[in-house]
Bifunctional ligase/repressor BirA (Hominiventricola aquisgranensis), 327 residues
Amino acid sequence: MKTELLKILRESDGYVSGQQLCERFHVSRTAVWKVIQQLKEEGYEVEAVKNRGYRIMTTPDVITAEEIRSRLHTNWMAENCIYLESVDSTNNYAKRIAEDGTPSGTLVVADEQTGGKGRRGRSWSTPKGSNIAMTLLLRPRFRPEHASRMTLLAAMAVTCGIRRVTGLDAGIKWPNDVVVNGHKVCGILTEMNTEVDYINYVVIGIGINVNQKEFPEEIREIAGSLCLEAGKQIGRAALIAAIMEELERIYEIFQKTEDLSELYEEYNQICVNCGRKIRVLEPGHEYTGVAEGINQDGELMVVRDDTGEKVSVYAGEVSVRGFYGYV
């Protein structure tokens, strides 16, 4: 009831009468009043005017399941949403509940993450009340070899969501770092549990620096936040909802072909590496070239400087850096 009540109040142009809410939910005025009081305790400013009803004046920056679902316009993705005040890792939590049969499309969101991790064992900090730490649980029906591309899909969804909500010119540093003005604002970690030819589940962990204003000195030149880039606070729940809507759209396109044949052009339009000179860092080997964008398999196509040969670069153990810096 709280989710629907929030949705109704938020989407209304004016006041919503208590009687309308009673009839909508088949409950008493007292029951409606109790939910309104709960919202006020959570930080919502709800105005109540006799003979007119209720309306929301301001919304706190909360990422509860009710707040996210009240903003969501998806058919199935994130409709089942789990909110945690604090957790070691949303990926770890999602893997635990996946083993218990939790359905595909479940979103796990935490206000604080104490043991988050990035690629290659790196840590990912999520201080309380400022950033987004979330993991989406999926149970794909395609073969395991196609699952690695889902990280690129997530990067596309995050980039599109950031652009929609903030207006910032977000882009992707191949394969899945989301950047704004040369600063990394999002990291994505995909993990999966498989049989030989079958995927039991995939968890896509997404960490976004939203309203964080300070970073440790060792990452200050690379890391950034949406707040710092936009010059204002960003509502986290609205951003989460937008990302889930974009990811549902992108994922359903991907499922039809199980490759990026219908998506790579859209990816390349928002990939900051396209048309730029880059350094490709392979284990024990490094070369430079110009990135032309990805192909339908998600590989980065690079024209090498030393040979003029066009080569495909697979994410795996390879890193890409801009010729003059991180991007």
